[in-house]
Amino acid sequence: MRSVHIPQDTILYVDGVTKSFDGFKALNSLSLILEPGQMRAIIGPNGAGKTTMMDVITGKLRPDEGTVFFNNDIDLTQHDEAEIANIGIGRKFQKPSVIENLTVFENLELALAGRRGVFESLIHKLSSSDNKQIGDTLALIRLADKQDWQAGSLSHGQKQWLEIGMLIMQEPQLLLIDEPAAGMTDEETALTAELFKELAKKHSLVVVEHDMDFVKALDCPVTVLHEGSVLAQGSLEQVQQNQQVIEVYLGR
Ligand SMILES: Nc1ncnc2c1ncn2[C@@H]1O[C@H](COP(=O)(O)OP(=O)(O)OP(=O)(O)O)[C@@H](O)[C@H]1O
């Protein structure tokens, strides 16, 4: 058994992770620590390794080297994607994948079913606590007045919120979210930042984003990736003043 020293109380512990594609290191000894209840924005130029990092955390890719632990002692490199989702890590891809011809409410109901297994959901009606959970989620994602709308008739931003609501139904401890603000109006972007701050009260969040106004609104620590490693870390203001960050990313 490997002996790894993990600082106490980490929700995500990534250390020395390397992942190569045909000899090219998409991740190059990447290390990153997230504490429970923390929100972290990940920024960096195209090809910096942000998606590959998410793929490694969620079990889509296995690292060539390095350590990835969840909740102090769960070695994520020993689990597949489905197991990692069940362990409590939810991932939101850039493009929303709500079911367009179901209502907002039904999409959330389906997400609840996903947690339980479809068969069990077919034979059980929604309990009052299920209804409350759906109601709370609808309020959180600001779609309470649209619960009977077909998901296909929502705006792009509203679809993104619905999908985040569907993830929340599964009560993940850690949420990984890829470019949520892309394609949103300014108003939706501002509301999404508010939603994430609300989410961060109950969940840990890793948010990959290119929109600096959105990152500023998140008001959380920022990690800058470059060539598969961490280039800088700190407040947005601090990393914006970092000369190397300006050279490889912000100044371009
Ligand atoms: N399956 C793959 N096969 C070969 N190369 C890959 C593969 N996946 C990623 N790469 C390469 O690894 C590097 C990192 O890619 P990655 O998608 O993780 O970057 P990123 O930071 O998410 O970029 P973006 O901001 O454009 O989404 C890129 O050079 C990419 O071409």
UniProtKB/TrEMBL annotation:
Pfam families to which the protein is assigned, alphabetical: ABC_tran, BCA_ABC_TP_C
A GO term for molecular function: ATP binding
Highest taxon above the source species: Bacteria
Keywords annotated in UniProt: ATP-binding, Nucleotide-binding, Transport
Domain ABC transporter: 12-252
PROSITE patterns the UniProt entry points to: ABC_TRANSPORTER_2
Protein's name according to its UniProt entry: Urea ABC transporter ATP-binding protein UrtD
Species of origin: Agarivorans aestuarii
